[in-house]
Amino acid sequence: MRRHIYFVLCFLLTVGCGMQTRLDELTLVLTVGLDEGKNGNLLVYSVSPVFNKEAKNIYEVIRTSGLTLRDNRFKANAFASGKMVGGKTQSVIISKNLAKKYDMFSYLDVFYRDPKNSTTANFIVFDGPLKDVMYIRLDDKPRLSVAIRDVLLTAHKSKQTTKINLLEFRRLSLDRAQTPFAPILRVHKGDLIAGGIALFNKQRKYVGSLSQKESPYFAILNKNIKPATSLTLAIKGLTKQKEYVSISIEKGDFSYKPSFQNGMFHFDVHIHLGAILTETTTHIDMKKEKKKLEQLLAKEIQKQLEAIVKKMQTYEVDPIGFGLYARAYEYKPFQKQKSWPKAFAKAEINIRPTVEIISYGVLQ
Amino acid sequence: MNSTQQLLTHSLDANEQTLRDYFTKTPDLVYCHLLIGEPKKRALLVYLNTLVDKNSINNNIIDPLLFETKQIHTIADIQLPIGSKSYTTKWEHVIQHLFQGETALLLDGDNHVLLLDTQGWPQRAIAEPQIESSLKGSHQGFIETCEKNIALIRRYLPHQQLKIEETTVGRRGHTPVTLLYLEDVAHPEVLQELRDRIEQVDVDTIVNTGELMQHIEDNPFSPFPQFLLTERPDAAVSNLLQGRIVIVVDRSPSVMIGPMTFITFFQTVDDYSTRWMIASFLRLLRLLAFFMAIFLPSAYIAALSFHYEIIPLNLLLTIGESRERVPLPPLLEAILMELAIEMLREAGLRLPAPIGQTVGIVGGVVIGQAAVEAGIVSNIMVVIVSLTAIASFIIPNPDMSESIRLLRFPMMIAASLFGLVGMVIGFMLIIGHLISLESLGTPEGSPFAPARLRDWKDTILRFPLWMMRTRPLSARPTQLTRQKKFRK
C-alpha cells in the first residue's frame, strides 16, 4: 500500500497543467483553404466552429496572407479567440489556380510533418477563387466545414467524384508507378457541388480533369464499384431510335494483364460487370434480347472507358495505377523507363468489358 | 466478579443471595419460588423475562412442576417436557445461559442447576431479502437469529458433511459466531486460517457481520471487499458447495462468506437459474458496467482536457455547443455532478420512503434540468453522470458497487492531470492491486491471475451448467468433482 502511495506521489511531481489542451480554449480549424495571394504570397482561409449563442455565425472564417501555412497560422492566432489546432481538420481545399502553378507538396509539408495535424483530412480542389466557397451563405445547411465534408462524401458514394485524404495523396505522389488525383468542388448558383476528378502529374501540378459524367467510369477502372455504381447509357440498335438504359452495377471481376512488346507496354483489361437493369425507355423482351442488350451495354461502356483512358494518356497521368501492374509483372522494362507517365502515354490499352444482367426488376 | 468463578452451594437461600448480589438493578430477572413434589420441596425458577418465551415457561415448566406428585430427591428426578436441557454447578455457566434466554431451576439441597432452553426474544419473521432481491431465486432471506439462519442453510444441504462450528467473539457481547463448511470439500488450511483469525479478535462485541469482516480481512487498505456479505441463503449454499466457508454471526442478518474472488462479486444466484446465454449476456453487461462506472467520467475529462482528437467531429460539435456556457473546467464539472449524485443517493438511502421520493424529485429536477439551464454543467455531463450511476447500480454486490464508485474519483483526478496516460496508470494500479490481493490467503484475482482456464467457464461468460463439472480452484477445494458427465 505504501509503495502505491509513493508511486502516485512520483506521478504527481510530473504534472504539467500547461500541457493541457482544453476544448474550451481551442479554435478547431476544420477546413483549411489555400489560394494564390498577391506577390506570390499564400492566401489561407481557416474555418472553425464558434460555440456561442450570442455570436451571429456558427462558424468563423479567418483569412490571412503569408509565406507558408505555418506563417499564416502565426498570423491567424492574432485573430482567433482560442489557440488554433489542426487535429480535427476535415478538408484541405486548394484553388485550381494555385494547383496549376505550384507543386502542392511545397505547401502541404506541415500537415505531414507536425503529428498534431490530421493526415486523414480530405484533399479537395476548388474550381474558382476560394473566397466563393469560404464566404458562401448556406442557410439550409450545417456549418460550412461539415457541409463540405457531407457533400463530398455523398457525391463520392454515388460516384459523382472521388475521395482522397492527405496521406493517400502523398502515397500516390511519391509512388513512381502512379500519379495523384483529387475530387473537385465548385459553387454553382450559391450551392456547393462536388463532381469530377482533378488529375495531377508527377510534379504534383494540376493538368486536367475528368467531368462528373466520367467519374463513374473512373470508379469502375479503379475497381471501386461498391456499394453500387449507377450508369445511364444511350443505346442505339435496340430499336430504330436512340434508347436510354439505366443500370446499377453491383459487382465486378477485374483482370489487368500487362505485357511488354516492341518497346511498348500493352495492357489487356477484362472487366466483367454484374448489373441490375433499373430503367429503360423501351420495352425489351428480356427472354429473347438479354444477350443482345448485354453486348450493346458492354460496347457503350467500352467506348466510355477507352475515352477516359485516352484522356489520361494525353495528360500523361496514371491515377488508376496501371504502373503498379507493369511494375509487378514486367519489372525489368518498367525499371528502365525514365518516367512511367510518359511510358504509359504510349502504352496500348485494350479494354474488354462484359456485362451480365443479373436482375431486371419485377417487371416482365 | 469473583463469585462467577465459584460453584453453587447446597443451600437454596445462599444460592439465591449469590444471584441477587450479582444481578443488581436487573428488574427483568424473575425469581419464582415453588414447592414441588410429595413431600413438598423448595425450588427456585430464575429467568430473564425479556429473553424467554413465557408460554413455554408456564406450560412446560411451572405447570408440570406444580402437579408433580413424586418425591423429588435431587434435581435429576425432575422430568420436564423440554428437549434441550443441561446441568451445571458453575455460576459462570448459569449466568451465561441466563443471558441467552434460558431458565435456571435450583432445588434446595442440591448444588446442581437445571438449565432449560426457553429462549424467546423479539425477532423478525423471515422475509424477502431487501438488498439482494432476485427474480427466480428463493424469497427467504436471513434474519437476525443465528439458529434460523442455520436452519435456512441446512434446508438446502441435508448432508452429514455440512459441519457447524460454534465460537463466541467479544468480551461483553459474547457474540455467537458459527462457521459452516462442507468437511470433504473445504480446505483444512483455509479453515484453520479463518479459525485463527476469528480467535484473535478481541473486542467488546460484534454488532454486525461487517465489523467482524473488517477485523479479519487480509488487506484493510484495499478498496475492494475480500469477503462476501449476503442475506441470501441460496447464495450461501452455492458458495458452500464451491468449498467456501460461511460465517454466520448472531444478531446480524447478513452472513459472511470467504475466501472470495473478484469475479464472484459480479455473479448472482439468478445467473444459474436462467438459461446460459441470457446469463452470459448479463455477465458481460455487468463487466461493461464495471468499466463504465470507473472510466466513463474520467474518459470524458481526459478527452476534453487533452485528447479532443479522439472525439468524432459531430460529437465534438455537440459537446462544444453543450459546454458553451459552462464556466467550469471538465474536472470540476464532473466532480460537482458526481458528488451531487452521491449525495442524492446517500440522502435517499437513509430517509423514510415518503421523504425519499421528495429527494428523488428535487434531485432529478436540480441535476437534470436546472443545472443545465443555469449553465453550470453541460447536457453531456448529465448524461455521463446518469450513465455512470446506472452502471454502478447494475453491479449486484453492494460492497463492490461502493468500492467502484469510490475508485471513480481518483481516476477522474488522474485523467485531468495526465489524460489517457493517467487513466492507463490508474487502471494498471487497479489491476496490479487486484493481482496481489488475497482473501483468506487464496488469490482474489483467481481464475485470471493465477490463470486457470478451466475455471473461466463461470466468469465472464456462464457456460451451460452441464459443462461445469469441477469446482473452481480458487477456494482450494479438496474434492474437485462437482457432477458426473451425464449429458452428451
From TrEMBL, chain A:
Residues 283-318 form a coiled coil. Residues 196-361 form the Spore germination GerAC-like C-terminal domain. InterPro entries: GerAC_N, Spore_GerAC-like, Spore_GerAC-like_C, Spore_GerAC_C_sf. It is found in: Membrane. It holds the Pfam family Spore_GerAC_N. It comes from the Bacteria. Keywords: Coiled coil, Germination, Lipoprotein, Membrane, Palmitate, Signal. It is a lipid-anchor. Residues 22-186 form the Spore germination protein N-terminal domain. The keyword RNA-binding does not apply. GO terms for cellular component: membrane. GO terms for biological process: spore germination. PANTHER family: SPORE GERMINATION PROTEIN B3. Belongs to the GerABKC lipoprotein family. This is Ger(X)C family germination protein. The lineage of its organism: Bacteria, Bacillati, Bacillota, Bacilli, Bacillales.
UniProtKB/TrEMBL annotation, chain B:
GO terms for biological process: spore germination. GO terms for cellular component: membrane. Keywords: Membrane, Transmembrane, Transmembrane helix. The chain crosses the membrane at residues 284-306, 351-370, 376-395, 407-435. InterPro entries: Spore_Ger (IPR004995), UPF0353/GerABKA_families (IPR050768). PANTHER family: SPORE GERMINATION PROTEIN. Belongs to the GerABKA family. This is Spore germination protein. It comes from Anoxybacillus tengchongensis.
